[in-house]
Amino acid sequence: MSARLYLDHAAATPLHPEARDAMWEAFDCWANPNSPYAEARRCNALMEKARSTIAATLGWEHDILFTSGASEAIVMAARRARIESRAHSATEHDVVPHGMGEQSIRIPVDASGIVDMAALDEVLEEGPALVAIQQVNNETGVIQPVAEIYEKVRARGSLLLCDAAQGAGKIDLPEADFITVSGHKLGGPAGVGALLAKDLTQIEPVGGQEKGYRRGTQNVPAICGFAAAVEAERFRKAMPRLKELRQAFENTVEEMGGTIVGKDAPRIPTIGGIAMPGATSASMLVQLDLAGISVSSGSACSSGAMKGSRVVAAMGLGEDIANHFLRVSFGPETDEGDIERMVGELQKFA
C-alpha cells in the first residue's frame, strides 16, 4: 500500500526538523519569561533571540508581537486599531470580516481575484479606514498588488492590515502598517504566530505581556520553533522548483478539461486552485482521501462545512466552479512523483 500523499500545505505543513530541534531544546525552559529571576531571564533571552531572528530573516525593522496564531493577530489589529472605519476585500480569510465587525465595508474583486481598485478608491474617499488585504489568497494563491494598494491607503491617511499567512517565509513581505504571520503555514508549530506592527501606538493596549498589547504567558518552545522554521527558509529555497511543478500540474489539469482558478493573476507557486467538471468538491475529497491523498476544497477553518468555495463565489465564477473546486497546495518536499500520482487520481474526475 502506498504511503499517504499530503498536498494540503496551505492548511498546515509538517514541522520542519529545524523547528523540532529548537523546540526540543527550549522545552527545558519552563519558567514564565516575564518574571524577574534567573530561570525566567533565561526563557526571556530565548524568546527575544527568536524575535530578533524572525525580524532579521523577514526583513522587518519594527515591532513584532507574538500571538497564538495569525487569526489572533488579525483580530488584535482589526478590533483595536485606532481608526474609525473598517474595510476588507471580498476574498479575505473568514476571520477578517468577523474580526472587523458587521460595519466593515466589503471591497469586491475581479474574476482573477484581484481587488477592484476603483471600489477601493471609493472606500478611501469616505474617510480614514483600516483596510485588510491578503498578500496571498489561501484558496487560489492569487497575489494582491499590495504595494499599489498601500500607496493608495497611505495617501488617504488610512492604515493597511495585510494577512501574510500564506506568503511569509516564501516570498518577500509587503509593506503595510500591520502584517500577520502564522507559524504552522511555514514549517513551525501550530498555536503560534505574530503581529508585525510599524507603529504600536496605532493599536489600543490591553496591558499584560508583549509590551502591554497582549495578555497571557508566551509559549517559548513554540516561539523558538517558529523562529527556527522562518530562519530555515525551506519554502523560499524550493520556490523555483515548485513553480515548475505547479505549472506542469496545471497544464495537465487543463488538458483533462479542468479549470485553473485565478490563472491570469500573479500567484504563489505553493497553491493551485482547480475545478474539475466530473465531480463535486465533496465527492472528490472523499475519493482522494480513500486513495491516500490529502487535499482540501478551501480554507481548513471552514472546509468542514462542505459548501462551495466562498472565495470562488466572490470572484463571480459561478457554482459550476465553486462546487467543483479543489485546493492543491505543495510543500518543500513535494516532487514530480507526487504530482504524477495526484494527476492519475484526478483523471477519474475528468
From TrEMBL:
<keyword id="KW-0479">Metal-binding</keyword>
<keyword id="KW-0663">Pyridoxal phosphate</keyword>
<feature type="domain" description="Aminotransferase class V">
    <location>
        <begin position="6"/>
        <end position="341"/>
    </location>
</feature>
<dbReference type="InterPro" id="IPR015421">
    <property type="entry name" value="PyrdxlP-dep_Trfase_major"/>
</dbReference>
<dbReference type="InterPro" id="IPR000192">
    <property type="entry name" value="Aminotrans_V_dom"/>
</dbReference>
<dbReference type="GO" id="GO:0046872">
    <property type="term" value="F:metal ion binding"/>
</dbReference>
<dbReference type="InterPro" id="IPR016454">
    <property type="entry name" value="Cysteine_dSase"/>
</dbReference>
<comment type="function">
    <text>Catalyzes the removal of elemental sulfur atoms from cysteine to produce alanine. Seems to participate in the biosynthesis of the nitrogenase metalloclusters by providing the inorganic sulfur required for the Fe-S core formation.</text>
</comment>
<keyword id="KW-0408">Iron</keyword>
<dbReference type="GO" id="GO:0031071">
    <property type="term" value="F:cysteine desulfurase activity"/>
</dbReference>
<comment type="similarity">
    <text>Belongs to the class-V pyridoxal-phosphate-dependent aminotransferase family. NifS/IscS subfamily.</text>
</comment>
<dbReference type="InterPro" id="IPR015422">
    <property type="entry name" value="PyrdxlP-dep_Trfase_small"/>
</dbReference>
<keyword id="KW-0411">Iron-sulfur</keyword>
<protein>
    <recommendedName>
        <fullName>Cysteine desulfurase</fullName>
    </recommendedName>
</protein>
<dbReference type="InterPro" id="IPR015424">
    <property type="entry name" value="PyrdxlP-dep_Trfase"/>
</dbReference>
<dbReference type="GO" id="GO:0051536">
    <property type="term" value="F:iron-sulfur cluster binding"/>
</dbReference>
<dbReference type="Pfam" id="PF00266">
    <property type="entry name" value="Aminotran_5"/>
</dbReference>
<keyword id="KW-0808">Transferase</keyword>
